[in-house]
Design a protein that fits this description.
Two copies of one chain form a homodimer. Chain A is α+β, with helices and mostly antiparallel strands. In chain A, 46% of the residues lie in helices and 15% in strands.
């Protein structure tokens, strides 16, 4: 586990990327695989990820993210969005997917379907959105760790206007609510944040052990 | 990135651990390091992790987690809890920590402090708890990925009664709200879930690219 810990010690929230360095198509495909393989509650994957490489779109987003340089200097942005329509149709679609991938009849999934449906139907839209958001953040954790190990620099960001992002990206019709983004690329040698010591609580503060 | 992807493909939510196999003290210290190094919004780490190794406590928790076998057969449980008292005192404490670790005066942190304070003070207790919960889930993502790469099996779980867990673990006085737990150890060869194909959305469903 030591190489993982070293990678996590070396990573930091990059504020200025070297905009001449781009991630390759293969790297993006690998990062997509990493995100898609992330665990989620009930296996529901109740979120989606908008990947932005287009420079004009990054420029359009920047003013809605406090004009932060990460937005336009990063190679790619991974914008994590909660899926806002988790309902019986979503469950039905999910059961079809399980049935197809595991070669199981829908009949044999009745028990699981009833459990998942009752989970969904016993929660308000707001509760489901919080639940979906939390699952998305598992994906963010997985992406940040995987990128760090692979030597790709990143900056996770919540500091932007979700409504403005929705408008720029036309997400309204898709029932997607932007939550947080991960800017990815390679840090600029001029990023002054690179040299700051990492601030973390002591283990005694963070953990209790029984 | 291929070895990471392989590890993520091989991991799954273990339902039955081999209870004769325990994680070592060194492994637990490494997993704590991994969690503590996790990125969080504003660097605030607004969550805490209760680690349970004691078998009697696991037995006491089990009925409050639908009697699931992971609870008592896992080597250790990492219970992620939102910190429920994110306030000016918390911010003050955090600024002291930055000041100490980075050898910066509190004066020089005024700008950052004002930003963090206004973030905290402009949100309700409920909003802060949702925000804290999401940060905890980045930690869960990081922990799951790191464990998978290190060959440690895990099961993330939300299916338990947080109130009952609070009572068993005496968390009430500590302002900690249980969110989710990660059971860690080594899977039993009898875990029938090991052989199930992983169900994931297609990339076309999970991602949009611009």
């Amino acid at each position: 586990m030591k190489p993982i810990i070293e990678a996590l010690k070396n990573r930091y929230a990059v504020k200025l990327f070297d905009d001449s360095k781009k991630l390759t198509v293969e790297q993006i495909e690998d990062l997509k695989a990493v995100v898609n393989l992330t665990a989620s509650s009930l296996g529901m994957q109740p979120y989606r990820v908008v990947i932005i490489e287009n420079q004009k779109i990054k420029e359009a987003l920047k003013p809605h993210a406090y004009d932060q340089a990460q937005i336009t200097t990063a190679s790619h942005l991974f914008l994590f969005c909660a899926h806002q329509q988790i309902d019986n149709a979503y469950v039905d679609d999910y059961m079809n997917l399980i049935s197809e991938i595991r070669h199981q009849s829908r009949e044999s999934l009745k028990g699981y379907e009833s459990m998942v449906s009752s989970f969904v139907n016993s929660r308000t839209k707001e509760e489901l959105e919080v639940w979906a958001s939390k699952q998305a953040y598992i994906g963010i954790g997985n992406l940040l760790t995987s990128a760090a190990i692979a030597g790709i620099d990143a900056c996770p960001m919540e500091g932007f206007d979700p409504q403005a992002f929705k408008e720029v990206l036309n997400l309204d019709k898709m029932n997607l609510q932007p939550l947080a983004l991960v800017a990815l690329g390679y840090k600029s040698p001029e990023d002054k944040y690179a040299k700051l010591a990492k601030v973390r609580r002591s283990n005694d503060t963070m953990f209790m052990q029984f």
